Amino acid sequence: MKHLIKQYLDHGISRRQLLTGLGAFGVSTVAANAIARSLASPAPQDADYGKGSPLREVSGTGGALLVAQLKAAGISHIFFNPSSGAGPIYDALVDEPDIHLIKGLQEGACVAMADGYAKASGKIGVVIIAHIGLPSGMTQMVNSWRDQIPLLVIVDATARGAMGENSFQEYEHADAITEPMTKWHWTAQTADKIPELVRRGIKFATTPPCGPVFLAFPTDTLREESKANVIDQSKFAVQMRIRPDKDDIERVARLLLEAKNPLLTVGDDLTWCHAQKEAVDLAEMLGLPVVGEVGNGFWSMPFPTRHPLYIGPQFARLRYPGPADLLLNLGSRIGERATPDMKLVTIRLDPINVARTAPAEVALVADLKLAIVDLIAALRSMATEEHLKQIREERTTKTREYTATMREFRQTVGRDSAGRSTITMGRLGVELESVLDKDTCYVVDADSGKTMDTLLSFGGADKQYFGTSPAVLGWGIPAAFGVKLAHPDLPVVSVVGDGSFLFSGPQPLWTFARYKAPVTHIVINNRSYNNERNRIWNDGGRQFATGRDMVCYLGDPDIDYAKVAAAFGVDGEVVTEPAKLRDALERAKRATADGRPYLLDVHVQRDGIGALSEWYPAYSVADLRKRKV
Ligand SMILES: Cc1ncc(C[n+]2csc(CCOP(=O)(O)OP(=O)(O)O)c2C)c(N)n1
Ligand SMILES: [Mg+2]
After folding, report:
1. Which of 65, 271, 293, 618 has a CA 20 to 30 Å removed from the CA of 439?
2. Is it true that domain 419-603 has CATH number 3.40.50.970?
């Protein structure tokens, strides 16, 4: 009978089928009707203004109005962790089969799932969490804020009548604590305002430059019966595909034509504007060497990293192509550099941060796709094909020669790692590159993972890269869930450091098991905050001098991540030998093809300064006991 009721509640069977089924269990017609009545909850009542009106009056609880407006905004998934005050929202969702609930077991994980979903789908991620759990969610809101990703984060707040009374779980000005990481934050004053606030929140979050918006709904506004207009969100969509001014684009074109040694930096705005192909067209047209980013500061790789013009991440001093006289920055937040002999031209989505510190010859706010299309047209109109060919050919030949040496470097890493008895980052990178399908979504939240980036191919027809620029760790595993939800047909691989894994805790794995999300998880297990130690010891200092790693060793006790995964319903295995890596990756591939998540706990060699040290400052609380038992 329990199964029958679950089927009914999950909308698998009709009310009539429920009644028939209950009859088969010997339940009388009167009793069966009473059960069906108790299971049905009143849906919000609609009053239509007639065909063609964008307004639809809806009455119901504040929770029901909220759900009705989310539906009108086309929201299909909510990442949540419940609290009792939000009950009316979940009550309304009982009768809303078009919106699916995805449960996370910690609020930071819910936010990171929504962030991964938004990065992969281009749509807003919606999160509903407990008011008291907001600080946990805020850890990951920092990632979305810095990466300018649209999120709507909702909590149930202290009831209006109890505000300021220092009541149970109340902390005052909860919406204000989100100020540094939101585009807008607000606490609802009345139930009938809820749909309007949701529309405004979604508008603010999704209008580029995007970002998180926080809304608090006092519990009594969610419970109260009210009436309000629900309006299609498209009526509030602001078209921000800004076309740059013609004269400005001609200035940029002229600077590019005059430059002797120009350089192109590329960044996340290209990904958000779907302008990757146009960036390649422009680079090829002028033979521009292209630099991506190094370390943090980006979440995507918009330019194909195997393109002969892609010279790799941008370091403070580049070996090639020597001092640039013009830097064209297309959509990178850290691509704006200043040197005395270099002119900077920068085109970004973000009016606040463009030309923020480096002096710019030309700084434009524009849609990257439109800007590049116009720039290409301007170059064509200002220079003959012969002239363009002359400019591009010499540079392209030189850059091709340089990038050929990078290919050689990758082969050297492969050869070097082949003979070793331990798994190096090089070996892992080489194996991943050969095993992963080209259409894989590669989600990385690992300090060491970044050292593998150059061994893997991203962009264009190769793997799509997803990361986080501020690197608030604990993002990767839950974010990979959101990416998979956005791209159920693409393989998704998540790569995290052991340290990073532990910042989100193993709990996000439970969400993969419950919702059957077939993602391969790779834990780079070096029993260390390896790069942290390297950075600290790099500066010399007392730890370096004494060989005492006071803070970064993660062993003793060692953690078996495959066992941890098993406890959360995810199969996996420990891989310690280089020769067994490929088979393990293939097993993970088969498991995910079967529809199951899989985790590989890959024991890798620590590298860098002090890598061999397993020393840490030991201390025993048990030894503090004076009482002998
Ligand atoms: C939430 C959070 N806390 C602390 C840090 C500071 N931090 C940067 S790297 C790092 C250690 C990462 O260790 P791991 O993921 O194992 O990386 P690896 O061993 O590959 O360097 C820490 C603690 C951070 N980035 N995010
Ligand atoms: Mg580590």
Report:
1. 293
2. yes
Atom of ligand 1 nearest to the CA of 531: 21
Q: Is 91 helix (H, G, I), strand (E, B) or coil?
A: helix
Instruction: For residue 284, report the distance from its CA to the centre of ligand 1, in Å.
Output: 38
Atom number, ligand 1, closest to the C-alpha of residue 498:
16
Q: Candidates 532, 549, 561, 607: which one to mutate for ligand 1, based on the most atoms within 8 Å of Cβ?
A: 532
Task: Please list the rounded mean pLDDT of every run of 10 residues in the chain (629 residues).
Answer: 61 62 72 62 60 88 98 98 97 97 98 98 98 97 98 96 88 91 97 98 97 98 97 93 97 98 96 98 98 81 95 76 93 88 96 94 98 98 97 95 85 79 93 96 87 89 96 97 98 97 95 98 97 93 95 97 98 97 97 98 95 95 88
Instruction: Give the model's pLDDT for residue 17.
Output: 66
> What's the residue count for the chain?
629
CA distance 202 to 211: 10
Alpha helices in 287-424 (DSSP H): 368-382, 385-418
Domains 246-407 and 419-603 share a fold: yes
| Segments of 158-201 assigned E as strands | 184-187
Given this model, what pLDDT does residue 21 score? 72
Ligand 1 atom nearest to 139, measured from its CA: 1
Q: How far is CA 447 from CA 102, 117, 534, in A?
A: 28, 22, 11
User: What local confidence, expressed as pLDDT, does residue 405 receive?
Assistant: 86
For residue 108 and ligand 1, the question of a CB distance below 6 A is answered with no
State if residue 526 touches ligand 1 by the CB under 6 angstroms criterion: yes
**Could you state, in order of their start, the residue ranges of all structural domains in the chain?**
1-41, 45-236, 246-407, 419-603
Mutate to test the pocket of ligand 1, among 531, 534, 606 (most ligand atoms within 8 A of CB): 531
Please give the number of the atom of ligand 1 that sits closest to the Cα of 606: 19
Rounded CA gap, 107 and 123, in Å? Answer: 20
pLDDT of residue 337: 86
Amino acid 413: pLDDT? 77
Give the list of residues 6+ apart from residue 379 with CB closer than 8 angstroms, or none: 253, 256, 257, 285, 286, 388
Indicate the CATH number of 246-407 among 3.40.50.1220, 3.20.20.60, 3.40.630.10, 3.40.920.10: 3.40.50.1220
CB-ligand 1 contact for 552 (6 Å cutoff): no
Q: Which long-range contacts (CB under 8 A, 24 or more apart) does 20-25 make?
A: 25/1
Listed as own residue / partner, the contacts of 169-172 with beta carbons closer than 8 Å and 24 or more positions apart are 169/131, 169/132
CATH class of 45-236: alpha beta
What is the signed CA dihedral for 227, 229, 232, 233, rounded to 10 degrees?
A: -90
pLDDT confidence of residue 629: 67
Q: For ligand 1, atom 7, which residue shows the shortest CA distance?
A: 532
pLDDT at 5: 62
